[in-house]
Amino acid sequence: MVSFIKKYLVLMVVVVLFAGAFLLNLMTNDANTGSGDGETLQPAEETQETEYAPGDYFTTFRDDREQVRKLEMEYLDEVIAASSNDDETLSDAQGQKLTLVENMEKEFIIESLIKAKGFEDAAVTFHAGTVNVVVKADELSEKQVAQILEITKKETGEPAENIKVMTGK
Question: What confidence tier does 121 reach under pLDDT thresholds 50, 70, 90?
Answer without folding.
Answer: very high
